[in-house]
Specification:
single chain, mainly alpha, 73% helix, globular
Length: 194
């Protein structure tokens, strides 16, 4: 559940982006991500996570750029980052993909920090546990790559219906969520452990 809550800033961004505009969505994402990071710093037994730190940097940087006068206005005003609303979504989704890939490159797959909150300490260094988290993080990276590709297609093919992006997003994210639930159980069953 913790890993799903970590995507709250992206949900806040998506909702406000659609209802009000991309700048407001970026600000909401920055505020929600900062609140979550602060919660982890202030709560005993919790530590800031790679995804949360990256999300604060992503939304904070994009929101600051937008508010400080970057080539962005509200949807009502016309231009936005990247020349369109899809440009902003592309930046957010590409940023999320970069955060996930960076966690793998740093040999700290982002799912590992959430998984360690749910398993006993003696399993934390088990190679199977670590491998499972690399696989799950890789699936999330694939899901975010699908979002980036859908954003690029919609950016360069504005004649396509918006539901194309919505369907791609829902399928990618639901697939990653289901895999995240299924894969650890599958690994335990295959290993004969309960």
């Amino acid at each position: 559940m913790g890993i799903l809550l970590a995507f709250a800033p992206f949900i806040a961004f998506a909702v406000l982006d659609r209802l009000v505009g991309p700048v407001e969505g970026l600000i909401a994402g920055a505020l929600v991500s900062a609140t979550m990071l602060l919660r982890d710093w202030m709560s005993p037994g919790r530590t800031p996570k790679i995804l949360e730190i990256g999300t604060v940097l992503l939304f904070g940087g994009l929101a600051l750029y937008a508010v400080a006068g970057g080539p962005t206005q509200s949807v009502m005003g016309g231009a936005v980052m990247g020349g369109s609303v899809m440009g902003v979504r592309l930046l957010v989704d590409a940023g999320l993909l970069l955060i996930v890939l960076t966690s793998i490159a740093l040999r700290r797959p982002f799912t590992l920090q959430y998984a360690r909150e749910q398993v006993a300490h003696e399993f934390w260094d088990d190679p199977r546990f670590i491998h499972t988290n690399y696989v799950i993080t890789g699936v999330w990276a694939l899901a975010f790559l699908v979002l980036v590709i859908a954003d690029l297609i919609l950016l360069y093919r504005p004649d396509l219906p918006p539901r194309f992006g919505i369907v791609a997003t829902v399928l990618a994210l639901v697939g990653a969520i289901k895999f995240t639930s299924w894969y650890p159980e599958h690994r335990r069953s295959a290993a004969g452990t309960v």
